[in-house]
Amino acid sequence: MIHIENIQKVYRARGRTVTALDDVSLHVAPGEVYGVIGRSGAGKSTLLRSVTMLERPDRGRVVVDGADLSALSERELRAARQRIGMIHQHFGLLSSRDVAGNVAFPLEVTGAPRKERRRRVAELLDLVGLDGLGRAYPAQLSGGQKQRVGIARALAGSPSVLLSDEATSALDPETTGSILALLRRLNRELGLTVLLITHEMDVVKNICDSAAVMHAGRITESGSVRELLTRSGSEIARGLFPLPPTVARPGTTIVDVTFVGDAAEESPARFVSDLARAHSIDVGILGGSIEDLAGGRAGRLRLELPGTPDDNAAPLAHLRDRGLALEVAA
C-alpha cells in the first residue's frame, strides 16, 4: 500500500547541510498499522511529509496505493492526496468553526454538496464517538475530543491511507489509550492502512503490527513487531521489554529468552522448571514480563544459568528446540 524506495532529502541553509532522510526504504502492507519510532530530529516528520509529497525527496520513489507520487503532475498529486488522511500532533482545528464545520472543511474544498456534507459529518462524528457535539467549538473540548475531531476530519474523504504525526504525544496516558484503541478499531472496521510516527514505545506496543526505528535520517531496523522481538540486539525488543541491567557473576551465563506466538501462551515458569529438571541445574530468574501486543502475546525473561556459555550449549539448545528466541547477554 505504501512503498518508499531509497528516498533522500537534504536541506541546505547558511552554508550548512543537513541530511534529513538518508536512503530510506519502507514497505507498509495493505491494512497494516506501521509505526516509525525515533527521537526528535531523527527524520520521522520529514518521512511522513514525503509520503504526501508535501516535502519532495531529492531522489527515490514514493508509491501509495499503486500510484508513484513522485511522477505525478501537481493536478494528479492533489487528487492522490485526497485518498490520504492526516492526523496532526496539535490537532490543527479551526477555532472559528464548530466541530461539524471542522470535519466538513475537506468536503467543502472538494466541492461536495451541502446535503452530502451533512450526512457524512454526522456519520463520522458517530464513528469517532462525538455524536451530539457537532455544534461545540474547539475551545470547549478536551484534548482527546479535539483529536477525535481531527481523526473524523482526516476520514472525511474516505481515504485508504491514514497518516498520524505524533497524534497522542500531547495527551495524557488514559486519553492516549482511548485514541489508540479508536485508531485500531478504524483500521479493522474500515480496512485502513495506517502509518504513524511516534517517540513512545507504548504506541508501538499497543497498536502496531510492524515498526521501524529511525536515527539521524536512517532506518536502523524494521520488520513485524513479532519478528523484531526475536531479532538479536533489536532496539524495539529492548524498548518493549526492558530488562534490569545485570552483570554476570563469575562462572554463570546470562541469557534473555523471548516468548512469542504459542510459546507466549504457556507459563514461562513451566519452561524454566522443565529446563531445570531436564539438565539438573539451578535456573535463576532475574527479571521479565509478558505483555499483550497488537500482534498477540509476547514476553521476555532474563535467566541466569550456572557455567559458561560453552558449558550451557545443551540447555540453550533445549530452549531453542521449544521455539524460544535466545540472546546471550553475558
Automatic annotation (TrEMBL):
In terms of superkingdom, the source organism counts as Bacteria
Query: Record's InterPro entries?
Result: AAA+_ATPase (IPR003593), ABC_transporter-like_ATP-bd (IPR003439), ABC_transporter-like_CS (IPR017871), ACT-like_dom_sf (IPR045865), MetN_ABC (IPR041701), MetN_ABC_transporter-like (IPR050086), NIL_domain (IPR018449), P-loop_NTPase (IPR027417)
**Membrane recorded as keyword:** yes
Q: Keywords assigned by UniProt?
A: Amino-acid transport, ATP-binding, Cell membrane, Membrane, Nucleotide-binding, Translocase, Transport
Q: Which GO terms describe its molecular function?
A: ATP binding
Q: What's the short name of a Pfam family annotated to this entry?
A: ABC_tran
- Where does the ABC transporter domain start and stop, copy by copy? 2-241
Residues of the signal sequence? none
Instruction: State which residue ranges cross the membrane.
Output: none
| CDD domains, alphabetized | ABC_MetN_methionine_transporter
Query: What name has this protein been given in UniProt?
Result: ATP-binding cassette domain-containing protein
Organism this protein belongs to: Actinocorallia libanotica
